[in-house]
Amino acid sequence: MKLNLKIWRQKDRESQGKLVDYVLEDLNPHMSFLEMLDTLNERLILTGDEPVEFDHDCREGICGQCGMMINGIAHGPLQNTTTCQLHLRSFTDNETIFIEPFRSQAFPIKRDLRVDRSAFDRIISSGGFVSTNTGQAPDAHALPVSHQVTEEAFDAAACIGCGACVATCKNSSAALFTSAKINHLVLLPQGKEERQERVIRMVEQMDAEEFGHCSNTEACEVECPQGISVLNIARMNYEYNRALTRRK
Amino acid sequence: MNLDAKIPEGSLEQKWENFKKTAKLVNPANRKKLEVIVVGTGLAGSSIAASLAEMGYQVKAFCFQDSPRRAHSVAAQGGVNAAKNYKNDGDSVYRMFVDTLKGGDFRAREANVYRMAECSLNLIDQAVAQGVPFSREYGGYLNNRSFGGVQVSRTFYARGQTGQQLLLGAYQALMRQVGKGAVKLYSRHEMLDLVLVDGKARGIIVRNLDTGVLERHAGHAVILATGGYGKIYYLSTLAMGCNGSAIWRAHKKGALMASPSWIQIHPTSLPQSGDYQSKLTLMSESLRNDGRIWVPLNTGETRKPNDIPENERDYYLERRYPAFGNLAPRDISSRAAKERIDAGFGIGPLKNAVYLDFAKAIKEQGRAKIEEKYGNLFDMYRKITGFDAYEEPMMISPSAHFSMGGLWVDYELMTTVPGLFALGEANFADHGANRLGANSLLQASVDGYFIAPYTVANYLSGDIHTGKIDDQHPAFDKAQEAVEANLRKLLAIAGNKTVDYYHKTLGKILYDYCGLARNEAGLKGAIVEIRKLREDFYKNVKIPGDSITMNSELEKAGRVSDYLEIGELMCFDALSRNESCGAHFREEYQTAEGEAMRNDAEFQFISAWEWAGADADPVLHKEELTFEVLKPIVRSYK
């Protein structure tokens, strides 16, 4: 199949970027989207051009490193799918595809399609953990946790930190990412001790990173590769208000 | 060279206790004067970095990914083993030790294997305390499932994302220390060389992958937790960035490489479908709990799998290994698949796969139960292939996966370079010639949480009077100059073939001659071919751009230049071992039934290789293995 690509090229953080046209022919529809970019890069290198920089690593949908806007949609047309698990069979022959980086004030562009998502790491380091040191743990069966609670905690913990929620949100809000971690931990007895401090610190860090506010469009849930529910955001708001009222 | 494994005195059960009792300590006031460099932030790296920082050491952690949470431990699916015996099915530390040692075909140290089984108990406690949401039964207690090569259920799991959840636990522990300022984190930094001062590991040279700038970092000890090098085969289950460069550059600075050719080829990955393909996705081994593996009984079968009647199917694992059936260990399952595929019974468009069938399990347990156990794996299968595995069998095929080989380390996880430690998949230690499923997450974790914190402290106790390590020492100048020269050399070649061309070509050579089956003529030929390919690489590779900005091709070129040397060493290693054991199957050494023939009389040792220079053959050193508790037996799963 043939594809007409319009890819965002930008040399570095300060430079002006622009869309550049590329045409690829004889593509196999079973090729993954990133393999299509590999094919393009192979050609660019051999013709003396600079290849397109893009984030990727595991290529099986779990590391969260890949991610780009494909025709204006984070990770492309399929729901609950990372860019690496998207295949050309989801496009039509001779289609024009716009490929751009995730765009957000808090995710500055490094080069081409690569963005800096270290703000997520800083949100986690502000409180996204249980304060337990190595060696302090009691026996794993000391505290039973119901099947249902574990499954709910897992649903939130499944977040891969790709940033699609931010990229797709008109406010560039990180509420889905932040709330998923807050809920994963507050649901479990091990995480309950620090619930108050945690939610305040993480929400404050989220604001300090200049992510926008959530205005409940629920677009993030639609684009999330792991299908993280927006109910997490509601619960985060509850936790936050609860913490504020109890704070001395 | 005398390879002293430094196994502690005492009975098997007492060795680790005895080590901990007598290990030297560093008092809290001195710890803050000692700096430790940790390279890699997967399970082993994150856990040791967090643990050392919690104790009060100054830690710097490095990873090439854009966040520590993306290290490839994240992709492990099935689970983590621990001898908790929560299922009351006869498990114990000793039983786990036996399974692991036997699974590794008696090519690992008894003391190491026993310690790993022993520490498995603490790991589950640790992970649960961190909030890892392991699967639980309705009563609220932890659930287990079974994995290949064992007859008990000792695998703890979090759906099909156990690696992700364990890594997030370790990552969060690490980020907690980063937030406190106890760990300095350097993501998007790649180690390009190890710096030795007076024969001791004292620092590293790294390249900031976003800016191209080279940096030097000094410390009292260097810990490599950089994972495996299975990506050397190009098509593998590993992430695109997985590499052997950190351990290889340490190897060239004097650290011996042990058993480099022992690479596990995983039986259940998705088959290759075309030349453009960049990776083969793994389908967790846990699927073999409920899936049945088969091929058609007749060659040239053209019917769809569901149309082939029961009596025209060959459930070859159940046929050949009735005691373990579909849960035979990985090396054996992969070889059995290759045997059927080579004999012309392969299925799929390229006839390179076998079926993994869930029809019976769905009929017996219901679709909902199968969905709960493996839902994300079935989803992944559908996303990649476009097929629904609830309706028809999956197509699977063997693929390069895990390197049992790695840097040689003693019982304290220290390499032959003083002050240089290797943890997790980067070392060779605990799996012998074949790793059992769900033992990789375990080994990475126990190395980082429970073993290295003691052994690294034991080493650092000798450095309390050393003072700060100076990164302006001439050894740093020399190492940095060499790194710069190497980058210039690569960029100056300006040939006409891409880095990926060399990587794919090397991978093909290794799959053909140093993969599931090896023989003398093939390996000798492969060494010649790899040397030619390497020569061609330095004449004709084309790397665009420069070294002072972001340049993914330059990063790849560095890794592939190392692979071109590691691949050669793998062939030497495979060639020198005239026996079949675990993942190493030499066609000359097999029984009439096609089973591996080990040779304990001549090869009951670990091969540890010394770098002798680019144009010289590597030098073999042997660490004899002694078995005091479990005498080697023929490994049978029949």
Automatic annotation (TrEMBL), chain A:
SUPFAM superfamilies tied to this protein: 2Fe-2S ferredoxin-like, alpha-helical ferredoxin
Tree of life domain: Bacteria
Domain 4Fe-4S ferredoxin-type, chain residue ranges per copy: 150-179
Family per similarity comment: Belongs to the succinate dehydrogenase/fumarate reductase iron-sulfur protein family.
InterPro entries: 2Fe-2S_ferredoxin-like_sf, 2Fe2S_fd_BS, 4Fe4S_Fe-S-bd, Beta-grasp_dom_sf, Helical_ferredxn, SDH/FRD_Iron-Sulfur, Succ_DH/fum_Rdtase_N
Cofactor(s) the protein requires to work: [3Fe-4S] cluster; [2Fe-2S] cluster
Xref: Pfam families: Fer2_3, Fer4_8
Organism: Sphingobacterium tabacisoli
Protein name (database record): Succinate dehydrogenase/fumarate reductase iron-sulfur subunit
Coiled coil: none
Automatic annotation (TrEMBL), chain B:
NCBIfam families reported for this sequence: PRK07573.1, sdhA_Bsu
Ranges of residues in domain Fumarate reductase/succinate dehydrogenase flavoprotein-like C-terminal: 503-637
Domain named FAD-dependent oxidoreductase 2 FAD-binding: residues: 36-441
Protein name, per record: Fumarate reductase/succinate dehydrogenase flavoprotein subunit
Cofactor(s) the protein needs: FAD
Entry keyword set: Flavoprotein, Oxidoreductase
Listed InterPro entries: FAD-dep_OxRdtase_2_FAD-bd (IPR003953), FAD/NAD-bd_sf (IPR036188), Fum_R/Succ_DH_flav-like_C_sf (IPR037099), Fum_Rdtase/Succ_DH_flav-like_C (IPR015939), SdhA/FrdA/AprA (IPR030664), Succ_DH/Fum_Rdt_flav_su (IPR011280), Succ_DH/fumarate_Rdtase_cat_sf (IPR027477)
